Amino acid sequence: MKDSNLPGTELLKTVLEPLLEDFQYWFTRSRKFLETEQLSFMSQQEQSDLLLRVTQAQAELNTAKMLFTATDKQVGIDMTTLTPWHQLVTECWNVAIRFHQEKEEKES
After folding, report:
1. What is the pTM (predicted TM-score) of this model?
2. Please, what is the Cα angle at 103 between 38 and 55, to 5 degrees?
3. What are the structural domain ranges in the chain?
């Protein structure tokens, strides 16, 4: 949905900039979680693989943010880049939810 009152650059700043910050937040939080918690429902290899994917996505995100900033926030990011990041964040949320549910079950 494009607001006809916002030129393209302003639209990118309004929509893309906060989205990139959200990805940064969730990738950082997921990385710390995967580095510090032992997940009983995942093998060590599965957890390491997920951590690696988060770390790689975070590196991609940092590159995208640098390009966005270097172009004075005038360049967008293709959905084929954003979609896997969104899927990865969702996967990390699901892992964290399961971890906390199992933790609650053990404590009750």
Report:
1. 0.86
2. 35
3. 8-107
